[in-house]
Amino acid sequence: MRQYIEERAISIGQYIIDNNATVRQAAKQFGVSKSTVHKDVTDRLEEIDSNLAKEARKVLDINKSERHIRGGLATKEKYLHQHCVL
């Protein structure tokens, strides 16, 4: 594996842990796709640093389990805002 990919995978994993970040947030921060973030955290990081990979995976699993709540809140906020504007 190329050195810059290993460094990116470690950086993304650390960013996710430090900031409780979602895949989308990490992708935006590092200028890569969501697929790349997912591949870096689940596959590449496991080979490089399994402990870091496990910690990052925990954060992503929590975010995944809460995403339907965040989506509902965003929709609620959208319609509340539209109602106030009209």
Characteristic key phrases:
single chain; 86 residues; mainly alpha; 88% helix; elongated
Task: Please explain how this structure is put together.
This protein is mainly alpha-helical and 86 residues long. It is built from 4 helices and no strands. The longest helix has 36 residues, at 50-85. It is elongated, with a radius of gyration of 16 Å. The N and C termini lie far apart (55 Å).
Task: Give me the secondary-structure topology.
Elements: H1 3-19, H2 23-30, H3 34-48, H4 50-85
Helix pairs in contact: 1-3, 1-4, 2-3, 3-4
Question: How is this structure best summarized?
Answer:
The chain has 86 residues and is an all-alpha fold.
Q: Spell out the helices and strands N to C.
A: HHHH
Q: End-to-end distance, in Å?
A: 55 Å
Q: Count the helices. How many?
A: 4
Radius of gyration: 16 Å
The shape is elongated
Label the structural class: mainly alpha
Strand content: under 5%
Q: What composes the largest sheet?
A: none
β-strand number: 0
- Overall average pLDDT: 88
Helix content: over 70%
Low-confidence stretches: none
